[in-house]
Design brief:
It contains 29 helices and 35 strands. With about 850 residues, it is an alpha+beta fold. The longest helix has 23 residues. It binds one RNA strand of 83 nucleotides through helix 7, strand 11, strand 15, helix 10 and strand 31.
Amino acid sequence: MDDRYDHKNIETRWQKIWEDQGAFTAHVDSTVPKYYLLEMFPYPSGRIHMGHVRNYSIGDVLARFLKMNGKNVIHPMGWDSFGLPAENAAIERNVPPAKWTRENIDYMRTQLKQLGLGYDWNREIATCEPDYYRWNQWIFIKLLEKGLAYKKRSSVNWCPHCATVLANEQVEECLCWRCSCTVEKRDLEQWFFKITSYAEELLAGTDKLTGWPERVLTMQRNWIGKSIGVEVNFNVVDTADKSIKVFTTRPDTIYGVTFMSLAPEHPLLRTLTPDSHLAEVRAFVEGVMKEKASAGPGGLDKMEKKGIDTGIRCFNPITGETIPVYVANFVLMEYGTGAVMAVPAHDQRDFEFAKKYDIPITVVITPSGVELDPKTMEEAYTGEGTLTNSGPFDGLTTDNAKKAITNYIEEKWAGEACLNYRLRDWGVSRQRYWGCPIPVIYCDKCGAVPVPAEDLPVLLPDNVMFTGKGGSPLEEAEDFVNTECPACGGPAKRETDTMDTFVDSSWYFLRYTSPHEMKKPFTKEDAGYWMPVDQYIGGIEHAVMHLLYARFFTKALRDMGLCDVDEPFKNLLTQGMVCKETQKCPEHGFLLPEEVSDGGKCVKCSAPVVTGAVEKMSKSKKNTVDPSGIIARYGADTTRLFSLFAAPPERDLEFSIDGVEGSYRFLGRVWRLVTGNIDNLSASEPYSSEKHGALESGPLKDLHCATHRTIEKVTVDIGRRFHFNTAISSVMELVNAIYATLQKGEGIVNSGAGPAVFREAAEAVVLLLSPFAPHITEELWSRLGATQPIYETPWLTFDRDAIARQEVTLVIQINGKVRSRAVIAVGTKKEEVLEMVKKDSRLTQWIEGREIKKVIYVPDKILNMVIK
RNA sequence: GCGAGAGUGGCGGAAUUGGCAGACGCGCCAGACUUAGGAUCUGGUGGGCAACCAUGGGGGUUCGAGUCCCCCCUCUCGCACCA
């Protein structure tokens, strides 16, 4: 008997069959409902990690399930293959980035195939290939024509270590998101995409994305940061036409303004500060700048609020009062107008500031029933209330006053209502080599000229030097830089910046629909059929940047007439992280498993090793697991099954080798169930009541019922809830039930309808398990005599009659405590149940001599008697 | 500080609509087969001798609460001087 579960053979064989037969090739077919399933494509870093395994296993379960359910599934895969690591490899190991990247892609593609993932590899794309990035450039030029791409000099975040510009989103608490070194400010000419033009639509869209997790939507709303308010001009005293513009969301408090605060970077400080205060203001501003630069991570919020009087005075346009203008360290130049009208009574920051510098506090909002006294107030009152000390507006509620005072300000030409967004335009320039060249040529006569569409792509030159000295290698590539002006033919120079790699990933899902199109990024027909992505799956780390940019691109492309979708991703699933416990030596820090001896000692110093917290797998914590090793030892099916069984997709997954063993054991159990009974199973066809007659009560009927219940549960769990862990557990239960039936006696499955019911159950196990463990199930399916592979086999439907029970166990409670159970016919009436209860000996001790005050009866479920 | 999510056996996790808490798996215990077992199969396994007690803690609603309401604690994530 050498028919053991040989995962290696089975998996390579079926992977070849799927590939040879083009099992997962997708074609447009308007007669079949389409389903676009997409997982975030990986950066080709060299090897896949457990996070990929999890992400792609989740996707593959859905792809296979939906295909079996009659959907025309498109399930593509590709490579987000521009980016820094390739360049670092070039600097450190002298490998050209293109070579390094392509080799990584080849290796990782093999790894993905080893997992048995059902991708349409005909649609594979790599963003670093010219036939992809030429369309990046094409779109860039379109954006330029539409006024959605522009260049401006601006202060940017500069990472000295990575020698590049970072987007705001790539800066976390003043540190570079990749290398964690302190980010500096630099002034550079940068290309920007005008995402702010779409701020309102991007925000409004968050209310329509009902298939997205609420927290992702919240993060995007926060990021867009819309606020409704007024810009108000405060005229400067002793000048004819100078004014300072402030932005406020609280026009209702304008009668309470007692001073104004400017950001230290505010340009008017230079021109308006009187000579008498100039030296003092300059010293203060310089001090604050220094402090900000050295504050480091999270330092800003800990900085003490301070400021000084600039000597400038201006008029409150509504009250006509003269107020002092301060410069304050907590006012942000980046937000609003960089100037704030200060209302100490109703803003906590202004309150603290006013207390510190003895500035008057005027109360203009009265909360209901409380009189505020500026002398005794200990904090600002920021809530709603009724206006007071506000001239004609006294007595209005805050809400009404906002509207009324805004109108009044507009009537007096003192300002206008406006919306303000925290969202900034998207800076896309990167001083890097391994990215998509920005298709612009600079000519002394004609200025910045876009490269004509027929000259695309602007190819990345491969004869460049990597010195690692900072700056872009493209700047040194003279063949690349020196060119002709497309407009006048004169000598000109190319833009040497490349695009942020988030540009690449902002439309790749559209390219998948027309991966071989030569004349356009994609065709309207293909996109029209396949888009939007029905289900997108990926990590929560992309909640803001990638997903917001992709939404922006989709809308911009729509407005260029290239496609008809408003939102690219209908449903979004953010999977949890893959974690594992860490091991730590007090002396040597985190340890690899091989650095821990059998006795739990550090191999370097013999100190006892502490098993630390369960944390996200990362190289620095030395708690990673290479999926290749797991696949080699246990097989792809086991690896997939484990990563789907140990936790629901959206939660974190804790890796455990014992759990992997458990999954492997289960597959072995399924294997033996089918192969060990193959003669019996082959001799029959699945049970049907017409052919085999109705089943009498007993083990066979129970097994038939369990089979159909499992079909129902797995169908719902995969299709509606994405709870693969419970789907798998219910298949395990069915397997247990089959074994238990076999245990009850050989005769049961050998005679009468036995073989048919057994076959039906075994087929259900194989088919229901197939999205999770596709190889072993294909193998067993063919051994069961199937002529059609599982991926072409329809999903199982369940028989309502088989599930319907004739009898149920009724729980009988006394005062809410379970005291007995009774098997009753479905639909038994309350009176009949009460009759039975009276005869139940387990209940007499509770009921006898007591008064039954109340009886609650939930048919077929529970009977609760309240007694005294 | 604001917002979101979570807290259930020794562990990962079930419980879909307020109705038997702990499915399924891991681990552990016992047994069977066996030269052997890290294979396989079978049984047991929240705590407590029991009545009973148990879903982070405390109140409440209800015949009945892991599930609903109020207060509090802890953890994770996101945002954070946003005017």
